[in-house]
TrEMBL record:
InterPro entries: Dcc1. GO terms for biological process: DNA replication; maintenance of mitotic sister chromatid cohesion. Keywords: DNA replication. Belongs to the DCC1 family. One of its GO terms (cellular component) is chromatin. This is Sister chromatid cohesion protein DCC1. It comes from Nicator chloris.
């Protein structure tokens, strides 16, 4: 491009009927550089918090396999990436001066010749989203840990996963992944994350609760050392400690000794799962009786401990209870509702809430989700929800 002179610029302004007095004196003449291809540059719009992350030298990671929609992760948050088109062409000009910078420079009556290094008609827009964590459990459940004596573990052909592996496979930030590993009670065995096989987990829990019973320890003060001492011959010490960490709250007393306060709700819930997994449906009153007899002395069972684990059918005579685990349901909102309405045609808000609570985005309520995916009606004076679309 030929370099424009001041006279040419003034002539152009006159033709465009623009008054030079209303403009800044500096003029930027743009020309396309030799490498100004459109495809090499991607623009990403960042909120201030993410910008600060980058400026502080931390990195953002794009995660997802070929068949997954890409997400961007910071250290502790996950964002959906969507392409936003703009009606104006966006130009990349190295060393470009903004009007404020030009204004501050009194000697800026000159002509600045700038080369465009690239351009774009769109940019990536980020929207905070729920981390996609269902897959984490699914991967670890391929090969649950059945204990040190398991033959299956020696011959297993399934992949085992380190933290690095999970970071490359799961669409969530590192903090969200590590938190979820805690939520699902995963433990590290020989450097790999594993979930305990349910029967093995129950066997460990049973060892601990029987010991508490035989030693008459209070449920709020179970000593770690004595547990490891007594049960170490039956199971690996790290497994005994893992089960105490999963089903108890760890604390240190004034003398520096480590104790655990057993979690009543979690222990009762696990025992209910063990009772329910072998029956399709269970008579509710019979179940409640057997359940209370099965939990450790001093613990009280309550149906609200089973939220997101079991479903009570009040319409059947006698009333029944059956296993329905929220973690077995689809992660996608519409698919989740389709599955739930396939299981039961009409739901009360109280019944459906534990099964959709985890779908709520930031600041979103269960009510808002129900408004979007279900329609309400009254049944015997109670508000119920059914599907907006026919369920095949």
């Amino acid at each position: 491009a030929a370099m424009r002179s001041r006279a040419e610029v003034d002539a152009t302004l006159q033709t465009a009927k623009l008054n030079p007095a209303e403009l800044l004196p500096a003029v930027q003449c743009l020309s396309f550089g030799p490498q100004a291809g459109g495809g090499e540059c991607c623009l990403l719009q960042l909120e201030p918090g993410l910008c600060a992350e980058l400026e502080a030298g931390r990195s953002l990671v794009i995660r997802g396999e070929k068949d997954e929609h890409a997400v961007l992760c910071s250290k502790d948050k996950t964002y959906d990436m969507k392409i936003a088109d703009t009606s104006n062409m966006l130009l990349f000009v190295p060393g470009c001066k903004t009007p404020e910078e030009l204004n501050a420079d009194p000697a800026s009556c000159n002509i600045i010749h700038s080369q465009i290094a690239g351009f774009s008609k769109n940019y990536w827009e980020l929207r905070r989203c729920r981390p996609k964590l269902k897959k984490l459990r699914k991967l670890l459940m391929e090969d649950p840990y059945e204990g040190p004596d398991s033959q299956k573990d020696q011959t297993s052909t399934f992949s085992k996963y380190t933290t690095e592996d999970l970071l490359s496979l799961i669409q969530a930030s590192e903090e969200e992944i590590l938190h979820q590993l805690q939520v699902i009670d995963a433990c590290k065995i020989e450097g790999y994350w594993r979930i305990l096989d349910f029967d093995y987990e129950m066997k460990l829990l049973n060892h601990v609760t029987q010991l508490i019973d035989s030693e008459s320890w209070p449920l709020s003060k179970v000593p770690l050392c004595a547990c490891l001492e007594e049960l170490g011959s039956l199971e690996p010490r790290e497994m005994i400690e893992h089960i105490l960490l999963s089903y108890g709250r760890k604390y240190v007393d004034d003398a520096g000794e480590v104790f655990f306060e057993m979690r009543e709700d979690k222990t009762c819930r696990a025992i209910a799962q063990m009772l329910l997994r072998n029956a399709v449906k269970f008579n509710l009153s019979e179940f409640e009786e057997v359940w209370q007899q099965s939990v450790p002395e001093g613990m009280t069972t309550r149906l609200d401990q089973l939220q997101g684990l079991a479903l009570v059918d009040k319409s059947s005579r006698p009333e029944t209870i059956s296993l329905l685990k929220v973690e077995d349901l689809p992660e996608d909102n519409q698919e989740r509702f389709n599955t739930l309405f396939g299981i039961r045609q009409k739901w009360t808000e109280v019944d459906i809430t534990p099964y959709i609570q985890d779908l709520c985005a930031e600041k979103q309520t269960v009510g808002a989700l129900l408004t979007k995916y279900a329609r309400s009606s009254m049944l015997n004076g109670v508000k119920v929800y059914n599907s907006r679309r026919p369920i095949s």
